[in-house]
Amino acid sequence: MIAKQVTKFSLKTIPVIFLTGLIACQPAPESSTNTNGATSQVTLRTAHSSWIEEHFQTEIVKIGLEKLGYQVETPKEIEYPAIYISLANGDLDYSTVYYNPGHEAFFNNAGGKAKLEGVGILTSDGIQGYQIDKKTADQYNITNIEQLKDPKIAKLFDSDGDGKANLVGCNAGWSCELSIEHHLEAYGLKDTVENDQGQYTALLANSITRYKQGESVIFYAYNPHWISAILKVDQDVVWLEVPFTSLPEELENITEEDTFINGKNHGFPTTEQRIVANKKFLAANSLAKRWFELVQIPAEDINTESLRIQEGENKPEDIRRHAQEWVEQNQELFDSWLKQASNKVKTQ
């Protein structure tokens, strides 16, 4: 989900600003010394976006902090730009939503390395790109999104009757929407392809229905996500290549080498999900920082969780239970991280 520079406000941004204001009005947590001898806040504050899958990662990290003697408030739900601003202002302490390099604009616009710090690699090798159903790809020999410049090819993916391909895009505010719009312009697809934006999950569900009915589908895909557990690569869908690497100004340092994955140019770089935290908080909480450096969640486990959420186990208590089950299934590794974090602090 990937990089956006906020330049103007609309009515849609008012709830975000309001939420940020509410957080800023809350008193800062007090400090104490935990059983490991590390200075910590009595109650830590965190948040994730409305993308519900992030709740799972947030809960796993939270369980570890609780095992280390911290108290952690119920995570808040705030959209990406406001999370970074709240962290920089000290209204939040940490978050698990730092998608690198996509969120660099959010990170830098909130104060950058002077106020924030990215820690650890929670989940590595997130893959992005465009997928179409394999049946259509094979029948028409479609391998590159540039082929949709041909109105006859684009019309195969028309779901609303206007003759243009309906590309399922990501939510506004995720930042990947900026790369998609940039691609449509750079590859000359504006006249034949529409970027359908709305609720990504609902749009994907509609694509699955269309696919099962034998219709052609095209969508922006991100892995880890439940879609990869339902529409399997090289069985149900295939990744499309792009003709060349071209990304928005915020990602101008990304090279063609960065966007090649398994021999294909996806047009998007691989993504690392990291933990981002207030720099002063990390300086005062070496135990939490060391925990952030150690904890990791494999992409395939997030795919499994994402599918459980999609199938209806999507309440906060469900996701908390899933996180606890994940810890139990990885107990030996999880405990080793806790031990390493504690021992690191004790030797300082």
What order do the helices and strands come in, and which of them pair?
Layout: H1 14-24, E1 31-33, E2 39-41, E3 43-44, E4 47-48, H2 54-67, E5 71-72, E6 76-77, H3 80-88, E7 94-100, H4 104-109, E8 116-133, H5 134-140, H6 151-155, E9 165-168, H7 176-186, E10 193-196, H8 200-212, E11 218-223, H9 227-230, E12 237-240, H10 256-259, E13 260-261, E14 264-265, E15 271-278, H11 279-284, H12 286-294, H13 299-310, H14 316-329, H15 331-346
Q: Please estimate the helix content.
A: 40-55%
The helix/strand class is: alpha/beta
Total number of helices: 15
**Largest β sheet strand count, sense and barrel closure:** 5 strands, antiparallel
Mean pLDDT: 87
Tell me the Rg in angstroms.
Answer: 21 Å
Q: Return the string of H and E elements.
A: HEEEEHEEHEHEHHEHEHEHEHEEEHHHHH
Give the oligomer, counting copies of the same chain as homo and different chains as hetero: single chain
Report how far apart the termini are: 37 Å
Number of E-type strands: 15
- The shape is globular
Examine the coordinates and then state which fold CATH places here, giving the name of the CATH topology of the largest domain.
Answer: D-Maltodextrin-Binding Protein, domain 2
CATH class of the largest domain: Alpha Beta
Quote the beta fraction: 15-25%
Low-pLDDT stretches are 1-41
